[in-house]
Design a protein that fits this description.
This protein is α+β, with helices and mostly antiparallel strands and 396 residues long. The protein has five helices and 20 strands.
Length: 396
Amino acid sequence: MGMGGSIDRSLAASAGGSGARVRTRAPAMRAAFVALMLLVRALTSSPADAVLIASGDGTGNVTAPTDDPGFANVGIMNGLCAVYLGNGWVVTAHHVGADAVTFGGVDYPSVPGSYTRLTGPGAAPPDIAVMKIVGDPGLPTPVLATTAPPTNASIIMIGRGSARGTPLTWSGLEGWNWTYPFTIRWGTNKITSTGVLLNDTRSIVVDFDKLGQANSTTHEAQAALGDSGGALFWKSGGQWRLAGTLFLALAFQEGQAPQTSFYTNATAAVDLSYYRTQILAYATKPACNDGLDDDLDGLIDHPTDPGCDSLTDTSEKSLALECDDGVDNDLDGSTDHPIDPQCTLPSSNSEAPPVPISAVWAIGALAGSLGVVGVRNAQGARPAPDRFAQSSSRTR
């Protein structure tokens, strides 16, 4: 996605597989592949942005579209993106790196040892990885595409990259600078090509076409700095499918200023259908048979973890165990073993501190003394017949 116009240069990328190539605009220039790194750590604590859109003033589409493909499933990791797959797993671009993922303002730590870079046909591993998070964000499980979207298929991109800034013109092309603030945003586009091998990664490519041109869409979008790990959804057979993970912005190698987007630029997403078998091999494993400490209690899988009833159990937590149920039962701000100091084991019966024996004795003694006092008060309340009778007589 980029800006249209005439230019004496090309936006091309060599492809793998069938020898397909990203659409060439002119013969003079190769495409530069700009990874969407956000200055990862520097911007982690800053608000985040989205895919750059050509519609309106560029600030729209920050809430889910009416026909929502999975807007809430795009979370924030290392200041970039990760997409929730279900069963606690997320998919992202490998260069994003492993860390906690934020969904709906809640941070979900990564499960130690779960981050895995997938394998592919290139000389180096592809730019795609999966990872498991601790806890359930309560999000739906998207349908994973079984094939790449066809050419000209309409798609929705969701990311957290730079926003559209001030307009500019370069070599006859219209475009924009990238700017802040950041927020998750969605945009639209159409598939340009598939089967493309970019950075040793099987990819889907979409061009950034000028609004009003034949291939443009209503909210024509281009990936920008920060969108890595974002989602590309495709609707097929009346059902939205997660088809790609954003990982590259394709720009002109010579002359295009950094942190800008122009019509005729493009976006590359990992073709998830190509890696589908590997993704599902991880994402469908039951929590009690995945070789991971999913609940961070120091115990792994059935039968070692008491929260696992069987190897097919989908959670290492158990509502029957107060120290392993995911609830702060005693409201002390600490939940379960090993966080709550009263939970010496996940199988411990209570998060509440035990009542000391001395305290029980003291309570019993107090109750006894109160009983004695009560009897004495009751006895003392009986009037002495002679004295009170005489007093009563004198007041009449």
